[in-house]
Specification:
The complex is a heterodimer. Chain A is an all-alpha fold. Chain A has helices at 2-18, 25-32, 37-45, 47-69, 75-85, 102-108, 114-128, 133-148, 153-160, 163-166, 172-186, 191-207, 210-225, 230-246, 249-264, 269-277, 279-303, 308-316, 318-324, 330-346, 351-361, 364-385, 390-398, 400-407, 410-424, 429-446, 448-462, 468-485, 487-500, 507-524, 526-540, 546-559, 565-580, 585-606, 608-613, 631-653, 660-666. The longest helix of chain B has 59 residues, at 427-485. Helix content of chain B is 65%, strand content 1%. Among the domains of chain B are: 54-133 and 152-183; 303-459, Leucine-rich Repeat Variant (Alpha Horseshoe). Classes of the chains: A mainly alpha, B mainly alpha. Chains A and B meet through helix 1, helix 4, helix 12 and helix 27 of A and helix 1, helix 10 and helix 21 of B. Chain B: InterPro entries: ARM-like, ARM-type_fold, PP2A_B56.
C-alpha cells in the first residue's frame, strides 16, 4: 500500500522542488494580484497550472493560505476560484490532504453573490466525497456547523446544501447534531435561509433513517409548507415529492396528505402553480390510490383556477396525468372526471391556457381509442383548429400524427384546410415557418389530389415571402414534396412555376429560383435537370445583379454531378469561364470554385478507371485549379479576400428585405 | 405589370408590409396595439354569488349614541369584496360600498373623538380585508418597467378609498399608537410590505405614505420594518431580480437614514455595505438609482469614514458592459465627491482615478463625457489640484491617448481642456510624463511579453508533468504486472 502511494506523489513533489528557482511563488502571486481583472481571471482559471508548478507541498503551505486571505475580489474571479478548487484534491496531495481546501472554500461559501456561493457549495460537496470518514468528522462537519451558525444569512444558506453529503458517513452522535442544525435552519428568521432549507429538505430526507424522516422531517415539512412567505411554501411542494416516495401509504395519508391538500388550495397562486407544475411527479410519488381520492379532485380545481398561470400549468399536465392513471378504469375516470374540465378550457379566455392544452390534447386520442376520440375529442380539436390564436391552431396541427394513428386525418381535413391557410398567411413569420415544417407530413396524410387542389398554391406563395427564412424553408419543403410525390408530379406542377420566377424583376425572387434548383435537381434527376433547369440557370448568368450571377456559379457547381459530360463540357464550362472573367470579385471567385469542381468531375468521367485509384472526395484538392493567376498573388490576397467573400455570402444567406438597397445600389 | 406589385405574393397580400416585419417593430408599438388592461387581485376564486349590500342610514343623520354603532356596521359592510374584473356584476352594491367608503373617509377626517378604542379592531379588519391580497401574476412576464405600461388594479375605485381612509386614520389627532399596535403588528406590516410589489404605481404611492406614517408612529416596529425591507432587497438582488416597489422603499429609507442617531449602529453600516451597495448590480438600476444614490450619500453625510468602503464597493460592482449604468455610477461618484472630506479623498484617490481614467477613454462617448464633466466641478477640481502629483500620472496615459484617438470630436475637445487644466496645475510633471510616455508604453509591452513567456513556460511544465505522470503510471503498472508474474 505504502509503496503504491509513493511513486504516485513522488515525481510531482520532486518536479515542484526542481522548479523552485524558476517560479518563485511571488511571481505567480503577482499574476493573481494583477490590477487588470481580466488577467486576474485568466490566472485563476489556470490555477491548476500554478499549483502544478509549485508542487503539492508549496501549494498547501503557500498558495492556499494566500487564496484564503485574498478572498475579497470581483465575483467573477471568485466564481472561477470556487470552481477550480473543486478539482484540486490531486494538486494538494490526494484525499489525505483534501481538507486543506476547506478554508478558502469556506470563505467563498459566505460571500453575497449567489452564483459564487452555489459554486463553492458544489465544490465542497465534491470534495466531501474525497474525505475519509475520519477527516470528514474532523474537518468537514465542523465547517458545516460553523456555516450553519454563521452571523450573516449567506453562510447559513450555504450550509443547507452540505448536510446531505456528510450525514450518511457520520457517526450517530454527529448525525444527531447535524439534524439539530438542519432543524434550526428550517425555522431561521431570514426567509432566504428558510428557502434554502426548504429546497434541500427533500434531498436531506432521502439520506435520513425512516424513523427520523417521520419524526423530524415531516414536522419541518409541515412548518415550511405553512410558512408566512409563499416563496417558502412553494419550495415545500417540491420537497413533498421526495418525502412522499419514502413513506408507506398509511404514513403518507396521515403525515403528508393534509399538507399537500392545503398546498393545492393555497391562497397564493404561486404555490398552486407549483402543485400544478409538479403534478406528474406528485402523482407518481403518492401512488394510484391517493391519486384517485385526492389528486384528481385537486387537479380539477387547478384546471379551473382563477389564475391563468395555474390553469396553463395544469393543462400542460393533462396528458401525463391520464397516461399515468392505472389502465384499469382509466377510461371511465378520464371521461367522467377530466374531460368535462378540458371542454371548459377549450374556450378559456387566456390564450396561453388554450395553447398549453392544444399542445397535449391530441395525445389523449391514443389513450381513449377511436370511438371516444371521434365522439368526444374531435369536436374539441375542431374548435381549437378555429381558435383565434395562431399558437393554439399550430399546436393542434403539429400533433396531428397522434390522431392520424387513431382515426386518420380525413376526419379533420375539412376543418384543417381553413386553419392551414390562415396560418400560412399569419403575420408572424415564425408561425408561417412552423406551418411549412408540417407541410410534407400533411401532404403525405392528405394525399396528392387534396394537396394539388388546396395546398399547392400556398407552397408556391411562400417562395416569394419577403422573409428569407420562409423562402428557404419553402425551397426545402418543395424538395421533400417531390420526394413524396415523385418526379412526374414535380415536372407538371412545381418545376414550371419555379422556372417562371427566373424572369421576375425582383432579384431576390430570381435567386429563389436558383435555390430551388439547387435542392430540386437531385430529387428530379438528370433528364429534368438538363432539359428544363440547366438552360434557365445558364441564361441567368447574364443577370445584371452580381448576387444572382455568383449564385448561378454556385448552382452550376451544385448540379454539376447530376449532368452528363456533354452538358458540362459544352454548356456549363463556357459559361463558368465567362463568369470567371466577371468584373465582380465574388462572382469570379465562385465561378472559379465551380470551374475546378466541374473540371474534376470531367476528369472522372473521362477516366473512370482512375476513379478507383483516387477515391478522394470531389473538391478536396480543388485548390490546384483555383486561380491560375499564380501562387504569389494568391497568398498575398488570400485572407482578406476570403473574408470579404464570406461576408457577402453570409449576407446573402441572411437576406433581409432591408438589404435590397445595399445590393441595388451596387448595380 | 407584376413589376409594380410588392414582393409579397398574392396569398399574403392581405397582410400589410408593416405588420409582416414583426420581430423588428419596437416593443412599444406592439404593446400599444394591445388594449390597456387592468388586473384583478388573485383572490377571486370561483366563489358563489356575492351578498348584496343594502344602504345604511347616513352617519350624519344618526344620533351621537347610534353613531358609533353605525360606524362599526359600515366598517363591517365594507369588508365585503367585489369582483371588478366583471364590470357588470353587483353594480348597485359596488356603488353602495363606494359611497360608504367616501362617507367613512369624511367621517374620520372631519369629526373629533370618533376613533374610540372599540373601533380599532373593526377599522384594521376592514383595511386588511380590502388591501391584503395575493398579487396576481404579471400580465406580461417580461414586463419592462421603463417601457411598458403598468397593469392597473381593477378594484382601484374601492381600494383607493380604503387607502385614503387608512391614511386619515393614521393621521388623525385621535389616533393612539398604543392601542393600534395591538392590531397593526408585525404580521400586518409584513403583508403591507409585500404589497409594494404591486404593479400599480398609484397603489405604491399610497403604500409609501402609509408605511412612512407607521414607521414614524410605531417605535416598536421600526427594527422589524428595516429588517423586512432588508430581506426584500436581498431577495431582489440575489434571487428574483424583480420587485416593483424598490424605488418607493428606498425613498422611505432615505428619510429613515436621515434620522439615524450617531454613532451609526453596526446594523446600519451592514445594511449600507451588504444591501445598498450590492443593489447597484441590479438590472433595472435606472428605475431607482436616484433614490439609491440619495440613501448612499445620506450615509456618508452621517459618517464620513464610510466613504472608503463605499467607493471601493462601487468600484467592485462597476458596470462592465452597460454604458447606461456606467453613466449612473459616474453620477453617483460625483455626488459622493461633492460631500467628500479631503482626508477621505486621499484614501481612495488611486483606485478611483484608475477607474475614471478608464471611463474617460471609453469608446461610448456618453461615458467619456460624463467622466470628463468632473473637471467642471469646482470642488472636485480643488481636490485634484491638491493631489495632482498622484492623480496626473494615473490620468495622463488615457487622456493623452484619446486626445489623439477618440472618434468623437466633442470628447477630444473636452480632453484638450482637461489636459490644459492639468498642465496648469503642475507643468513640470506634465512635461515629464509627456516625454516618458513612449518609454512607458514600451515598458508595458515588454511586461506583456514577459507574462506570455511565463505562462508558456508554465504550460510546458504542465505538459511535462502530465507526461511524467503517465510514465510513472506506466512504470507502476509494469512493476505490478511483473510482481504478479513472479
Amino acid at each position: 500500500m505504502a509503496g503504491a502511494a509513493g511513486p504516485g506523489t513522488g515525481p510531482g513533489a520532486a518536479g515542484g522542488d526542481g522548479d523552485d528557482s524558476l517560479y518563485p511563488i511571488a511571481v505567480l502571486i503577482d499574476e493573481l494580484r494583477n490590477e487588470d481583472v481580466q488577467l486576474r481571471l485568466n490566472s485563476i482559471k489556470k490555477l491548476s497550472t500554478i499549483a502544478l508548478a509549485l508542487g503539492v507541498e508549496r501549494t498547501r503551505t503557500e498558495l492556499l493560505p494566500f487564496l484564503t486571505d485574498t478572498i475579497y475580489d470581483e465575483d467573477e474571479v471568485l466564481l472561477a476560484l470556487a470552481e477550480q478548487l473543486g478539482n484540486f484534491t490531486g494538486l494538494v496531495g490526494g484525499p489525505d490532504f483534501a481538507h486543506c481546501l476547506l478554508p478558502p472554500l469556506e470563505s467563498l461559501a459566505t460571500v453575497e453573490e449567489t452564483v459564487v456561493r452555489d459554486k463553492a457549495v458544489e465544490s465542497l460537496r465534491q470534495i466531501s466525497q474525497e474525505h475519509t470518514p475520519i477527516a470528514l468528522e474532523a474537518h468537514f462537519v465542523p465547517l458545516v456547523k460553523r456555516l450553519a451558525s454563521g452571523d450573516w444569512f449567506t453562510s447559513r444558506t450555504s450550509a443547507c446544501g452540505l448536510f446531505s453529503v456528510c450525514y450518511p458517513r457520520a457517526s450517530n452522535a454527529v448525525k444527531a447534531e447535524i439534524r439539530q442544525h438542519f432543524r434550526s435552519l428550517c425555522s431561521d428568521d431570514t426567509p432566504m435561509v428558510r428557502r434554502a432549507a426548504a429546497s434541500k429538505l427533500g434531498e436531506f430526507a432521502k439520506v435520513l433513517e425512516l424513523d427520523s424522516v417521520k419524526s423530524e422531517i415531516v414536522p419541518l415539512f409541515t412548518n415550511l409548507a405553512s410558512d408566512e412567505q409563499d416563496s417558502v411554501r412553494l419550495l415545500a411542494v417540491e420537497a413533498c415529492v421526495s418525502i412522499a416516495q419514502l413513506l408507506s401509504q398509511e404514513d403518507l395519508e396521515a403525515l403528508v396528505m393534509p399538507t399537500l391538500r392545503q398546498a393545492a388550495e393555497d391562497k397564493s397562486w404561486r404555490v398552486r402553480y407549483m402543485v400544478a407544475d409538479k403534478f406528474s411527479e406528485l402523482q407518481k410519488a403518492v401512488g394510484p390510490k391517493i391519486t384517485l381520492n385526492d389528486l384528481i379532485p385537486a387537479f380539477q380545481n387547478l384546471l379551473k383556477d382563477c389564475e391563468a398561470e395555474v390553469r396553463a400549468a395544469a393543462a400542460h399536465k393533462v396528458k401525463e396525468l391520464c397516461e399515468n392513471l392505472p389502465p384499469e378504469g382509466r377510461e371511465t375516470i378520464i371521461m367522467n372526471q377530466i374531460l368535462p374540465f378540458i371542454k371548459e378550457l377549450v374556450s378559456d379566455t387566456n390564450q396561453h391556457v388554450k395553447s398549453a392544452l392544444a399542445s397535449v390534447i391530441m395525445g389523449l386520442s391514443t389513450i381513449l381509442g377511436k370511438e371516444n376520440t371521434i365522439e368526444h375529442l374531435l369536436p374539441l380539436f375542431l374548435a381549437q383548429l378555429k381558435d383565434e390564436c395562431p399558437e393554439v391552431r399550430l399546436n393542434i396541427i403539429s400533433n396531428l400524427d397522434c390522431v392520424n394513428e387513431v382515426i386518420g386525418i380525413r376526419q379533420l381535413s375539412q376543418s384543417l384546410l381553413p386553419a392551414i391557410v390562415e396560418l400560412a398567411e399569419d403575420a408572424k413569420w415564425r408561425v408561417r415557418l412552423a406551418i411549412i415544417e408540417y407541410m410534407p407530413l400533411l401532404a403525405g396524410q392528405l394525399g396528392v389530389q387534396f394537396f394539388d387542389e388546396k395546398l399547392n398554391s400556398l407552397c408556391m406563395a411562400w417562395l416569394v415571402d419577403h422573409v428569407y427564412a420562409i423562402r428557404e424553408a419553402a425551397t426545402n419543403n418543395l424538395m421533400k414534396l417531390v420526394k413524396k410525390f415523385g418526379t412526374e408530379w414535380a415536372q407538371n406542377t412545381i418545376v414550371p412555376k419555379v422556372l417562371v420566377m427566373a424572369g421576375d424583376p425582383n432579384y431576390l425572387h430570381r435567386m429563389t429560383t436558383l435555390f430551388c434548383i439547387n435542392v430540386l435537381s437531385e430529387a428530379c434527376g438528370q433528364e429534368i435537370t438538363t432539359k428544363q433547369m440547366l438552360p434557365i440557370v445558364l441564361k441567368m448568368a447574364g443577370d445584371q445583379v452580381a448576387n444572382v450571377r455568383f449564385n448561378v456559379a454556385k448552382s452550376l457547381q451544385k448540379i454539376g454531378p447530376i449532368l452528363d459530360t456533354d452538358a458540362l463540357q459544352e454548356e456549363v464550362k463556357p459559361v463558368l469561364q465567362k463568369l470567371g472573367q466577371d468584373e465582380d470579385v465574388d462572382v469570379k471567385y465562385f465561378a472559379q470554385e465551380a470551374l475546378s469542381a466541374v473540371a474534376q468531375r470531367l476528369r472522372k468521367l473521362d477516366f473512370p478507371a482512375k476513379d478507383s485509384e483516387e477515391p478522394s472526395t470531389p473538391g478536396a484538392d480543388k485548390n490546384h485549379f483555383l486561380r491560375p493567376g499564380g501562387p504569389g498573388e494568391d497568398t498575398g490576397k488570400g485572407p482578406a479576400y476570403q473574408l470579404h467573400v464570406n461576408t457577402r455570402d453570409t449576407l446573402a444567406q441572411l437576406e433581409i428585405a432591408e438589404l435590397v438597397h445595399f445590393s441595388q445600389s451596387r448595380d | 405589370m407584376s413589376s409594380s406589385s410588392p414582393p409579397v405574393g398574392a396569398a399574403s397580400a392581405a397582410i400589410s408590409a408593416s405588420e409582416k416585419v414583426d420581430g423588428f417593430t419596437r416593443k412599444s408599438v406592439r404593446k400599444a396595439q394591445r388594449q390597456k388592461r387592468s388586473q384583478g387581485s388573485s383572490q377571486f376564486r370561483s366563489q358563489g354569488s356575492q351578498a348584496e349590500l343594502h344602504p345604511l342610514p347616513q352617519l350624519k343623520d344618526a344620533t351621537s349614541n347610534e353613531q358609533q354603532e353605525l360606524f362599526c356596521q359600515k366598517l363591517q359592510q365594507c369588508c365585503i369584496l367585489f369582483d371588478f374584473m366583471d364590470s357588470v356584476s353587483d353594480l348597485k352594491s359596488k356603488e353602495i360600498k363606494r359611497a360608504t367608503l367616501n362617507e367613512l373617509v369624511e367621517y374620520v377626517s372631519t369629526n373629533r373623538g370618533v376613533i374610540v378604542e372599540s373601533a380599532y379592531s373593526d377599522i384594521v379588519k376592514m383595511i386588511s380585508a380590502n388591501i391584503f391580497r395575493t398579487l396576481p401574476p404579471s400580465d406580461n412576464p417580461d414586463f419592462d418597467p421603463e417601457e411598458d405600461e403598468p397593469t392597473l388594479e381593477a378594484s382601484w375605485p374601492h381600494i383607493q378609498l380604503v387607502y385614503e381612509f387608512f391614511l386619515r386614520f393614521l393621521e388623525s389627532p385621535d389616533f393612539q399608537p398604543s392601542i393600534a399596535k395591538r392590531y397593526i403588528d408585525q404580521k400586518f406590516v409584513q403583508q403591507l410590505l409585500e404589497l409594494f410589489d404591486s404593479e400599480d404605481p398609484r397603489e405604491r404611492d399610497f403604500l409609501k405614505t402609509v408605511l412612512h406614517r407607521i414607521y414614524g408612529k410605531f417605535l416598536g416596529l421600526r427594527a422589524f420594518i428595516r429588517k423586512q425591507i432588508n430581506n426584500i432587497f436581498l431577495r431582489f438582488i440575489y434571487e428574483t431580480e424583480h420587485f416593483n416597489g424598490v424605488a418607493e422603499l428606498l425613498e422611505i429609507l432615505g428619510s429613515i437614514i436621515n434620522g439615524f442617531a450617531l454613532p451609526l449602529k453596526a446594523e446600519h453600516k451592514q445594511f449600507l455595505m451588504k444591501v445598498l451597495i450590492p443593489m447597484h448590480t441590479a438590472k433595472g438600476l435606472a428605475l431607482f438609482h436616484a433614490q439609491l444614490a440619495y440613501c448612499v450619500v445620506q450615509f456618508l453625510e452621517k459618517d464620513t469614514t464610510l466613504t472608503e468602503p463605499v467607493i471601493r464597493g462601487l468600484l467592485k460592482f462597476w458596470p462592465k458592459t452597460c454604458s447606461q449604468k456606467e453613466v449612473m455610477f459616474l453620477g453617483e461618484i460625483e455626488e459622493i465627491l461633492d460631500v467628500i472630506e479631503p482626508t477621505q479623498f486621499k484614501k481612495i484617490e488611486e483606485p478611483l482615478f484608475k477607474q475614471i481614467s478608464k471611463c474617460v477613454s471609453s469608446s461610448h462617448f456618453q461615458v467619456a463625457e460624463r467622466a470628463l464633466y468632473f473637471w467642471n466641478n469646482e470642488y472636485i477640481l480643488s481636490l485634484i489640484e491638491e493631489n495632482i502629483d498622484k492623480i496626473l500620472p494615473i490620468m495622463f496615459g488615457s487622456l493623452y491617448k484619446i486626445s489623439k484617438e477618440h472618434w468623437n470630436p466633442t470628447i477630444v475637445a473636452l480632453v484638450y481642456n482637461v489636459l490644459k487644466t492639468l498642465m496648469e496645475m503642475n507643468g513640470k510633471l506634465f512635461d515629464d510624463l509627456t516625454s516618458s510616455y513612449k518609454a512607458e508604453r514600451q515598458r508595458e509591452k515588454k511586461k506583456e511579453l514577459e507574462r506570455e513567456e511565463l505562462w508558456k513556460k508554465l504550460e510546458e511544465l504542465k505538459l511535462k508533468k502530465a507526461l511524467e505522470k503517465q510514465n510513472s503510471a506506466y512504470n507502476m503498472h509494469s512493476i505490478l504486472s511483473n510482481t504478479s508474474d513472479e
